[in-house]
Design a protein that fits this description.
- This protein is α/β, with parallel strands linked by helices.
- The chain has two domains: 130 residues, Nucleotidyltransferase, domain 5 (2-Layer Sandwich), CATH 3.30.420; 83 residues, no CATH class.
- The protein is built from eight helices and eight strands, in the order ααβββαααββαβαβαβ.
- The protein has a six-stranded mixed beta sheet, sandwiched between helices. The protein has a two-stranded antiparallel ribbon with strand order 4-5.
- A hairpin with a 2-residue loop joins β2 and β3.
- The radius of gyration is 19 Å and the shape is globular.
């Protein structure tokens, strides 16, 4: 009989165990290494627990969650499912899909991809097991690039709506952006950066930085220039 991880850890451990919400660890890793007092914190990934997207307000050293979307409404799963459909490795090769999108025409498949979304990160299909509800009939490299371009465009549209929601809910000029979706450089440049005056993100804003965030979520301690190679990346625009 399988044992739940929480019960297993309790049975095996001789020290107290403290649990941290997955998106809380992402948010804390960004906020408490940032130079900002007041900011919007956006976390977007595939799936860690059930939350797949959250917006927080960071203010005076405290974080407050102000918006969220839960599984299966996941922008990361959406992007990864199409990465898999195009013959690449999900949760690894998303950067290749982004590169392919540069060579494609999004109009060819746009409406078929767009129909999966009914609103602000509201999906009518669960992408956890891939894209299995319709055939895209990819017969050439051109078709692959056209589909990638459509996926990238729909991704950017959703990112834009989320960033506008973050501005609306926090009224902040500063942004901390975390989670795997924050690694999409094209969306960052054309959608995210124009929305905020100052932006902070870690070189790897995904799960590798969560160990830092798991500690900072509870200690609420500001961290500056620690020698981990993950806290010295800042983009500032005047």
């Amino acid at each position: 009989m399988s044992v739940l991880p929480r019960r297993y850890m309790k049975a095996q451990s001789y020290a107290p165990i403290t649990y941290t919400p997955h998106h809380g660890s992402h948010a804390a890793a960004g906020y408490y290494t940032s130079p900002f007092d007041h900011c919007a914190i956006v976390v977007l990934d595939a799936i860690g627990e059930f939350e797949c997207a959250t917006i927080w307000e960071g203010k005076h050293g405290e974080m407050r969650k102000v918006w969220s979307r839960s599984y299966p409404n996941s922008l990361g799963l959406f992007y990864s499912a199409f990465t898999d459909l195009l013959g690449m490795t999900p949760i690894q090769d998303e950067w290749k899909l982004q590169a392919m999108a540069e060579k494609g025409n999004p109009k060819v498949f746009y409406h078929r991809v767009k129909k999966y979304f009914t609103g602000l990160l509201e999906l009518n299909y669960n992408f956890h097991k891939g894209v299995n509800d319709q055939k895209f009939y990819i017969d050439s490299i051109e078709d692959e690039c056209n589909l990638a371009a459509a996926v990238q465009l729909v991704f950017e549209e959703q990112i834009e709506m989320i960033m506008l929601k973050a501005k609306e809910l926090t009224n902040a000029d500063c942004l901390v952006y975390m989670g795997g979706c924050a690694m999409n450089s094209k969306a960052n440049k054309i959608v995210v950066e124009p929305k905020f005056k100052y932006i902070w993100s870690l070189p790897n804003p995904g799960d590798p930085s969560s160990s830092i965030g798991a500690v900072l979520y509870h200690t609420k301690q500001r961290v500056r220039d620690i020698d981990l190679g993950v806290v010295k990346h800042i983009e500032i625009r005047v």
